[in-house]
Fold each of these.
Amino acid sequence: MGEVKTIGVLTSGGDAPGMNAAIRAVVMTALASGIEVKGIMRGYAGLLNGEIIDMDEKMVSEIMRKGGTILYTARCKEFMTPEGQEKGAQVLRDNGIDSLIVIGGDGSFKGAQALSNLGINTVALPGTIDLDIACTDYTIGFDTAVNTAVDAIDKIQDTSTSHERCSIIEVMGRNAGYIALWCNIANGADGILIPEKEEFDEQDLVETILNNRKKGKTHHIIINAEGIGESNRLAKRLEAATGIETRATILGYIQRGGRPTAKDRVYASTMGAYAVDLLLGGATNRVIAYKSGQFTDYDINEALAMKKTIDEYQFLVSRMLVQH
Ligand code: ADP
Ligand code: F6P
């Protein structure tokens, strides 16, 4: 394995608040060790187009408190082909980049895995609001997204109470229910629908709403994960079954933007620095994780083989805290 001289960094897939803190940490840690850093714009799409810039400290000052990613992000089908990956590895070699840090979700990890197989040293950072990566209990952006959603739901709760309504609130998460689960507990919602628990009983939810109304509750919040979707239809069905005026709100992309929380800044910075350290130690095909209260790293192949499940105890707590 050759000496690390130039590290490339890119962000890929859905953006997430905290990605900028990770980029900043990569740049500052690498420069402090005398390593050059190049930023690759627009994920793997920009890599294939040779959109590569030199990074210095000035470019990363003042970025930590900003949402989004200064390197932009993209999804790129061409990079999913062996030809695209070979071309990407060649572009990296042509630009003198021997090592690459990829910040993204598990789709992006597969790209890093492919490049490692082609001789580029790669380390991936879990960057997604969805918390849907099996090897880690934390992903960059989840904390900010949940706080944004909780804040929005608090506001909806105000108007829902004034009108004595029921509100269905759909949160992001792709096929994972973690954002929904956290919002459910944090907002004291009456019910939750998540893809991991598809065997959900709608009649049970109707009864919970009616019982809570009998006990004097004047509004009801139901958190629906995007992986279940169909919030407007659900609102119509619940209104018909309960006789309570019901509205649906899809929170959408608001959850992906905004100032990163302190937790996202600190964890993303730690992961960025850790990634550089791993590369300097000769590692490749690794993913950084936060597991059982510690920062650690896994082989990407091993990480991709793991299956993410919902935290059963947390789910139980969310059920217990619903009034019946
Ligand atoms: P995320 O990284 O958030 O999971 P995607 O699944 O959309 O988001 O993946 C982001 C990008 O990673 C894709 O657009 C593609 O360029 C790359 N990618 C995804 N899957 C693969 C794969 N099997 N091989 C190589 N690259 C991939
Ligand atoms: O992965 C993050 C995420 O925001 C998911 O929650 C959502 O399903 C998806 O990205 C939306 O992606 P796009 O930006 O392509 O619409």
Note: The CA atoms of residues 166 and 246 lie 5 Å apart.
Amino acid sequence: MAASCTTCCASSPHNPTLTEPCRIPDALIDALRKARHVCVLTGAGISAESGVPTFRDAQTGLWEQYNPQDLATPEAFLRDPELIWRWYRWRRDLVAAVEPNAGHVALARLATLVPRMTLITQNVDGLHQRAGSRDVIEFHGNIFTNRCFVENCIVDCDTSAKVPSCPHCGGHVRPGVVWFGESIPSQALNDSFAAAADCDVFLSIGTSSQVFPAANLAEIARDASAVVVEVNPEPTDLAASIHFAIQARAGAVLPELVDSLAE
Ligand code: APR
């Protein structure tokens, strides 16, 4: 991919957008080499190249008629738990059938090249862990876990029923993910905010930066004088106020970035 790219200074935000194909700017590699702590936030875009639709992509097939934001809510589950379980079983099967892509693998390798890395993901697909990343902060939970809707605790249960039941109280079991209108688990929230405020480089990868509080993290890092980088083929509102806006696919940029750092 390595054509020469537009120059890009890291001295202040409002830099020209880098477009694919591009070589990683020396100033960014230099910032990563000097970083004591790198914080990474990923969104659905990093899993797109594995074949997992992003949250705001049109849904396919049976689910085309639904807006995910209407399904991923406690109200939707109370209204029709069977429908919500059908949707999540479809998503679980889809994720189980795909593989981590070069972007996931590159982030797992990046963690071995810097003194400290915090990886925060908004994704619930577990692909970072399957690519070898450890201690992943799952901001919105994990699609393969199950939680009792009544006791609000993770349960190990038989999920063959149309709507699985809690083995402790018999109440409905739901997927262990954070739905719209629900709070982020406090540990994940606190650890993520602390990492954004402490890091020297913040990489925002494959997220539309539309959903808060995850979308606050890049600004917290920028306000704490970190070098902030976005990797997204479609620049977001964030792109205008950060140091590097790399308008390219994560699967193309991240291996290049890690190879350049490892040189
Ligand atoms: N590489 C990098 N970015 C990509 C790629 C790619 N190959 N393909 C798509 N993108 C970008 C899109 O341009 C988009 O900006 O990924 C972003 C995905 O945005 P969303 O679909 O909004 O997903 P996300 O930002 O993760 O949503 C955040 O909102 O819907 C809730 O809980 C859900 O975790 C999700 C949260």
Note: Confidence is low (pLDDT under 50) at residues 1-14.
